[in-house]
From TrEMBL:
InterPro entries: Intradiol_dOase_C (IPR000627), Intradiol_dOase_core (IPR015889), Intradiol_RC_Dioxygenase (IPR050770), PCDO_beta_N (IPR024756), Protocat_dOase_b (IPR012785)
Species name: Kocuria aegyptia
Annotated protein name in UniProt: Protocatechuate 3,4-dioxygenase subunit beta
One Pfam family matching this protein: Dioxygenase_C
Lineage of origin: Bacteria, Bacillati, Actinomycetota, Actinomycetes, Micrococcales
Annotated spans, Disordered: 1-33
Length: 273
Protein backbone atom coordinates (compact mmCIF):
# COMPACT_ATOMS: atom_id res chain seq x y z
CA UNK A 1 0.00 0.00 0.00
CA UNK A 2 1.35 3.44 -0.91
CA UNK A 3 0.85 6.64 1.07
CA UNK A 4 -1.69 7.74 -1.51
CA UNK A 5 -3.75 4.60 -0.85
CA UNK A 6 -4.00 5.34 2.86
CA UNK A 7 -7.03 7.11 4.24
CA UNK A 8 -6.84 9.99 6.73
CA UNK A 9 -7.04 7.59 9.66
CA UNK A 10 -4.11 5.48 8.39
CA UNK A 11 -1.61 8.22 7.46
CA UNK A 12 0.80 9.39 10.13
CA UNK A 13 3.96 11.42 10.62
CA UNK A 14 6.76 9.95 12.70
CA UNK A 15 7.46 12.24 15.64
CA UNK A 16 10.75 12.20 17.54
CA UNK A 17 10.31 12.80 21.26
CA UNK A 18 11.42 16.30 22.13
CA UNK A 19 14.06 16.94 24.74
CA UNK A 20 14.42 19.91 27.10
CA UNK A 21 16.71 21.75 24.66
CA UNK A 22 14.59 21.45 21.52
CA UNK A 23 12.88 24.82 22.04
CA UNK A 24 16.12 26.61 22.90
CA UNK A 25 17.76 29.24 20.72
CA UNK A 26 20.28 28.09 18.14
CA UNK A 27 23.93 29.02 17.94
CA UNK A 28 23.07 31.21 14.93
CA UNK A 29 20.63 33.17 17.11
CA UNK A 30 23.34 33.74 19.70
CA UNK A 31 25.91 34.66 17.04
CA UNK A 32 23.66 37.43 15.70
CA UNK A 33 23.07 38.85 19.17
CA UNK A 34 26.76 38.79 20.09
CA UNK A 35 27.77 40.35 16.77
CA UNK A 36 25.33 43.22 17.33
CA UNK A 37 26.60 43.83 20.87
CA UNK A 38 30.20 43.81 19.63
CA UNK A 39 29.37 46.27 16.86
CA UNK A 40 27.59 48.59 19.30
CA UNK A 41 30.55 48.46 21.66
CA UNK A 42 33.08 49.13 18.89
CA UNK A 43 31.18 52.27 17.92
CA UNK A 44 30.61 53.52 21.45
CA UNK A 45 34.12 54.83 22.16
CA UNK A 46 34.03 53.25 25.63
CA UNK A 47 36.48 50.79 27.17
CA UNK A 48 35.08 47.95 29.28
CA UNK A 49 37.60 45.58 30.83
CA UNK A 50 35.18 43.52 32.95
CA UNK A 51 32.30 41.27 31.85
CA UNK A 52 28.79 42.62 31.51
CA UNK A 53 26.76 41.13 34.32
CA UNK A 54 23.53 41.28 32.30
CA UNK A 55 24.91 40.03 28.99
CA UNK A 56 21.75 38.84 27.23
CA UNK A 57 23.29 36.03 25.12
CA UNK A 58 24.41 34.46 28.42
CA UNK A 59 20.78 33.68 29.22
CA UNK A 60 20.91 33.02 32.95
CA UNK A 61 22.83 36.25 33.62
CA UNK A 62 19.61 38.15 32.97
CA UNK A 63 17.95 36.32 35.87
CA UNK A 64 20.76 36.24 38.42
CA UNK A 65 22.96 39.29 37.93
CA UNK A 66 23.11 41.74 40.90
CA UNK A 67 20.40 44.40 40.81
CA UNK A 68 21.00 46.08 44.19
CA UNK A 69 23.82 48.24 45.47
CA UNK A 70 26.66 46.50 47.26
CA UNK A 71 26.75 46.59 51.06
CA UNK A 72 29.84 46.84 53.18
CA UNK A 73 30.50 43.81 55.37
CA UNK A 74 32.50 43.61 58.59
CA UNK A 75 35.57 41.52 57.68
CA UNK A 76 36.17 40.52 61.29
CA UNK A 77 32.68 39.07 61.60
CA UNK A 78 33.06 37.12 58.36
CA UNK A 79 36.44 35.78 59.41
CA UNK A 80 34.86 34.19 62.48
CA UNK A 81 32.89 31.87 60.19
CA UNK A 82 35.05 31.66 57.04
CA UNK A 83 37.65 28.96 56.28
CA UNK A 84 41.14 29.48 57.61
CA UNK A 85 44.41 28.08 56.28
CA UNK A 86 48.09 28.25 56.99
CA UNK A 87 51.18 27.41 54.98
CA UNK A 88 51.46 24.04 56.71
CA UNK A 89 47.97 23.13 55.45
CA UNK A 90 48.98 23.18 51.76
CA UNK A 91 51.19 20.29 50.63
CA UNK A 92 53.41 20.70 47.60
CA UNK A 93 51.91 17.60 45.94
CA UNK A 94 48.49 19.26 45.86
CA UNK A 95 49.66 21.27 42.85
CA UNK A 96 50.17 18.10 40.76
CA UNK A 97 46.72 16.88 39.72
CA UNK A 98 48.19 13.86 37.94
CA UNK A 99 49.42 12.08 41.10
CA UNK A 100 46.43 12.43 43.42
CA UNK A 101 44.84 9.03 42.78
CA UNK A 102 45.87 5.42 42.37
CA UNK A 103 46.80 5.56 38.69
CA UNK A 104 47.62 7.71 35.68
CA UNK A 105 44.82 10.01 34.50
CA UNK A 106 43.84 9.94 30.83
CA UNK A 107 44.63 12.90 28.60
CA UNK A 108 47.27 15.41 27.60
CA UNK A 109 49.57 16.25 30.50
CA UNK A 110 50.28 20.01 30.79
CA UNK A 111 51.95 22.50 33.09
CA UNK A 112 50.40 25.89 33.90
CA UNK A 113 52.64 28.47 35.50
CA UNK A 114 52.69 32.20 35.99
CA UNK A 115 52.80 34.99 38.53
CA UNK A 116 50.19 36.75 40.63
CA UNK A 117 50.83 40.51 40.50
CA UNK A 118 49.24 43.71 41.73
CA UNK A 119 48.44 46.63 39.44
CA UNK A 120 51.97 48.02 39.76
CA UNK A 121 53.61 44.74 38.76
CA UNK A 122 54.64 43.78 42.29
CA UNK A 123 54.43 40.09 43.25
CA UNK A 124 51.64 38.95 45.56
CA UNK A 125 53.43 36.57 47.93
CA UNK A 126 52.05 33.55 49.80
CA UNK A 127 48.73 33.76 47.95
CA UNK A 128 46.50 30.68 48.09
CA UNK A 129 45.71 29.65 44.50
CA UNK A 130 43.12 26.93 43.87
CA UNK A 131 42.07 25.41 40.54
CA UNK A 132 39.29 23.11 39.41
CA UNK A 133 38.47 21.81 35.94
CA UNK A 134 36.81 19.18 33.78
CA UNK A 135 38.75 16.07 32.78
CA UNK A 136 40.07 15.36 29.27
CA UNK A 137 36.59 14.25 28.17
CA UNK A 138 34.96 17.47 29.41
CA UNK A 139 33.37 15.92 32.51
CA UNK A 140 33.41 17.23 36.08
CA UNK A 141 33.14 14.98 39.11
CA UNK A 142 29.92 16.63 40.17
CA UNK A 143 26.46 15.17 40.64
CA UNK A 144 24.92 17.85 38.39
CA UNK A 145 27.25 17.02 35.52
CA UNK A 146 25.44 14.14 33.83
CA UNK A 147 26.33 14.51 30.15
CA UNK A 148 27.50 11.22 28.58
CA UNK A 149 31.26 11.63 28.82
CA UNK A 150 33.41 9.27 30.90
CA UNK A 151 34.55 10.02 34.43
CA UNK A 152 38.27 9.44 34.93
CA UNK A 153 38.69 7.50 38.20
CA UNK A 154 42.27 8.76 38.49
CA UNK A 155 41.52 12.46 38.12
CA UNK A 156 39.76 14.68 40.67
CA UNK A 157 40.22 17.95 38.76
CA UNK A 158 41.12 20.02 41.84
CA UNK A 159 44.43 21.35 43.17
CA UNK A 160 46.01 24.21 45.09
CA UNK A 161 49.32 25.86 45.92
CA UNK A 162 50.80 28.96 47.53
CA UNK A 163 52.58 31.61 45.47
CA UNK A 164 56.31 32.04 46.03
CA UNK A 165 58.17 35.15 47.08
CA UNK A 166 58.18 36.27 43.45
CA UNK A 167 54.42 35.70 43.15
CA UNK A 168 54.91 32.54 41.10
CA UNK A 169 52.58 29.54 40.99
CA UNK A 170 52.73 26.25 39.08
CA UNK A 171 50.35 23.34 38.43
CA UNK A 172 50.75 20.06 36.58
CA UNK A 173 47.43 18.75 35.31
CA UNK A 174 45.52 17.28 32.35
CA UNK A 175 44.27 19.56 29.59
CA UNK A 176 40.48 19.79 30.04
CA UNK A 177 38.07 19.06 27.23
CA UNK A 178 35.17 21.28 26.10
CA UNK A 179 31.75 20.38 27.42
CA UNK A 180 28.09 21.05 26.59
CA UNK A 181 25.92 23.37 28.65
CA UNK A 182 22.27 24.40 28.62
CA UNK A 183 22.48 28.04 27.52
CA UNK A 184 21.20 27.24 24.00
CA UNK A 185 20.97 24.31 21.62
CA UNK A 186 24.31 22.67 20.82
CA UNK A 187 26.15 25.03 23.20
CA UNK A 188 29.74 24.11 24.10
CA UNK A 189 32.11 25.82 26.51
CA UNK A 190 35.73 26.29 25.42
CA UNK A 191 38.29 24.29 27.41
CA UNK A 192 39.17 26.23 30.56
CA UNK A 193 40.53 26.01 34.08
CA UNK A 194 38.87 27.82 37.00
CA UNK A 195 41.18 29.77 39.30
CA UNK A 196 40.39 30.94 42.83
CA UNK A 197 42.70 33.30 44.72
CA UNK A 198 42.67 34.45 48.34
CA UNK A 199 44.26 37.58 49.71
CA UNK A 200 44.97 38.17 53.37
CA UNK A 201 41.42 37.27 54.36
CA UNK A 202 38.38 35.42 52.99
CA UNK A 203 36.60 38.61 51.85
CA UNK A 204 39.31 39.19 49.25
CA UNK A 205 38.63 35.98 47.34
CA UNK A 206 38.36 36.26 43.56
CA UNK A 207 37.48 33.68 40.89
CA UNK A 208 38.41 33.71 37.22
CA UNK A 209 38.95 31.36 34.27
CA UNK A 210 41.98 30.59 32.10
CA UNK A 211 41.59 29.51 28.47
CA UNK A 212 43.91 27.91 25.92
CA UNK A 213 45.16 29.63 22.76
CA UNK A 214 43.40 29.31 19.38
CA UNK A 215 40.25 27.63 20.70
CA UNK A 216 37.62 27.53 17.91
CA UNK A 217 34.81 27.94 20.46
CA UNK A 218 35.86 31.43 21.63
CA UNK A 219 33.64 33.26 19.13
CA UNK A 220 30.65 31.03 19.99
CA UNK A 221 30.79 31.27 23.78
CA UNK A 222 28.64 34.00 25.42
CA UNK A 223 30.53 33.75 28.72
CA UNK A 224 33.85 34.53 27.02
CA UNK A 225 32.17 37.13 24.80
CA UNK A 226 30.52 38.86 27.78
CA UNK A 227 33.86 40.68 28.04
CA UNK A 228 33.09 42.91 25.09
CA UNK A 229 36.57 44.44 24.81
CA UNK A 230 38.81 42.17 22.65
CA UNK A 231 42.03 43.12 24.44
CA UNK A 232 40.50 42.40 27.84
CA UNK A 233 39.27 39.00 26.61
CA UNK A 234 42.76 38.03 25.53
CA UNK A 235 44.03 38.46 29.11
CA UNK A 236 42.18 35.24 29.93
CA UNK A 237 44.08 33.24 27.30
CA UNK A 238 47.30 31.52 28.35
CA UNK A 239 50.36 31.51 26.10
CA UNK A 240 52.14 28.36 25.00
CA UNK A 241 55.52 28.31 26.77
CA UNK A 242 58.11 26.03 25.19
CA UNK A 243 60.54 26.63 28.06
CA UNK A 244 57.91 25.29 30.46
CA UNK A 245 57.39 22.19 28.33
CA UNK A 246 59.31 19.06 29.32
CA UNK A 247 60.94 16.61 26.92
CA UNK A 248 58.63 13.67 26.14
CA UNK A 249 56.50 14.52 29.17
CA UNK A 250 54.24 17.60 28.96
CA UNK A 251 53.43 20.91 27.25
CA UNK A 252 53.73 24.19 29.13
CA UNK A 253 51.54 27.28 29.34
CA UNK A 254 52.14 30.63 31.04
CA UNK A 255 49.38 32.81 32.46
CA UNK A 256 49.91 35.80 34.76
CA UNK A 257 47.10 37.08 36.98
CA UNK A 258 46.86 40.82 37.67
CA UNK A 259 44.70 41.68 40.67
CA UNK A 260 44.22 45.44 40.22
CA UNK A 261 44.65 48.33 37.82
CA UNK A 262 43.49 48.85 34.24
CA UNK A 263 45.05 45.56 33.10
CA UNK A 264 43.60 43.41 35.83
CA UNK A 265 42.35 39.93 35.05
CA UNK A 266 38.60 39.43 34.59
CA UNK A 267 36.85 37.94 37.63
CA UNK A 268 33.61 36.02 37.79
CA UNK A 269 32.21 38.07 40.67
CA UNK A 270 29.03 36.44 41.90
CA UNK A 271 28.65 34.09 38.93
CA UNK A 272 29.14 30.33 39.26
CA UNK A 273 30.06 28.94 35.86
Amino acid sequence: MTDQDQGPEESFVHLTPKGPDDAADTQADLDREMAQISADYAGSGRTETQPRLDYAPYRSSILRHPTKDLHHADPETIELHAPAFGERDVHRLESDLTVQSGGEPIGERIKIRGRVLDGDGRPVRRQLVEIWQANAAGRYIHKRDQHPAPIDPNFTGVGRCLTGDDGSYEFVTIKPGPYPWKNHRNAWRPAHVHFSLFGTDFTQRMITQMYFPSDPLFALDPIFQSIVDPKARQRLVAAYDHDASEHEWLLGYTWDIVLSGSNRTWTEGDSNV
